[in-house]
Write a sequence for this structure.
């Protein structure tokens, strides 16, 4: 059974490799479900890690419906990962109504030719998951990362079983809440891969900062933060 570790840093990737993981999904910012890692992290991981690495291509947090500019950035990031020699891409696109954006996802798969392609947990928002699985298989998606449309893969085991039974070419990879005390459930049910971060928090400061740099108001699935021209213009006009 393949154990894929979602690594958010070089240290996490090294720990995963040394612990015997079979593959790494490289990303940044686990708290928002992951975004595309920096060029510097990509280079460092490429130089230090010998097991296969799949790179998350998601330009921002929030939903999975991207603007034309964002989509061009995603394709550029895929080409960069191909140039650097990574083995796979993790990505996907939805329409605003949470249906699969077949055309754009297919374009990402084509852009990733020569690498594996994983459709990520955007799948956990889609309607008609069995139909979407068939659409993904038709376009050549290799892996599907999903919690079975629940908060954890254990809670979503019923749908995960159905997906596994209906899959003919795409490997169904349970993820979210996979732990050492429940991973045997997925192995016993015949899944070929599982996905987890295995993350533990490490204290780095001896004292709490006076002001938090975390902003809970930015953590939204149905909204994205964009700098407002009107707001900035009003400030600029006040000081000119």
């Amino acid at each position: 059974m393949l154990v894929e570790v979602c690594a958010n840093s070089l240290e996490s990737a090294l720990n995963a490799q040394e612990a015997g993981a079979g593959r790494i999904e490289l990303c940044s910012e686990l708290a928002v479900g992951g975004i595309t890692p920096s060029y510097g992290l990509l280079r460092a991981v490429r130089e230090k890690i010998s097991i296969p690495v799949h790179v998350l291509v998601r330009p921002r947090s929030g939903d999975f419906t991207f603007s034309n500019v964002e989509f061009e950035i995603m394709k550029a990031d895929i080409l960069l990962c191909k140039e650097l020699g990574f083995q796979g891409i993790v990505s996907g696109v939805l329409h605003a109504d949470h249906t699969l954006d077949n055309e754009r996802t297919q374009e990402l798969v084509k852009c990733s030719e020569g690498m594996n392609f994983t459709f990520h947990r955007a799948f956990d928002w889609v309607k008609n998951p069995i139909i979407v699985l068939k659409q993904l298989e038709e376009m050549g998606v290799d892996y599907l990362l999903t919690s079975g449309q629940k908060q954890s893969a254990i809670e979503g085991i019923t749908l995960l079983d159905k997906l596994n039974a209906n899959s003919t070419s795409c490997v169904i990879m349970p993820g979210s809440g996979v732990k050492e005390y429940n991973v045997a459930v997925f192995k016993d049910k015949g899944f070929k891969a599982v996905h987890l971060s295995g993350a533990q928090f490490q204290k780095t400061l001896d004292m709490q900062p006076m002001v938090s740099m975390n902003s809970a108001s930015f953590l939204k699935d149905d909204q994205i933060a964009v700098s407002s021209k009107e707001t900035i213009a009003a400030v600029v006009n006040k000081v000119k």
Summary: The mean pLDDT is 96. The domain at 2-201 is CATH 3.20.20.380 (TIM Barrel).
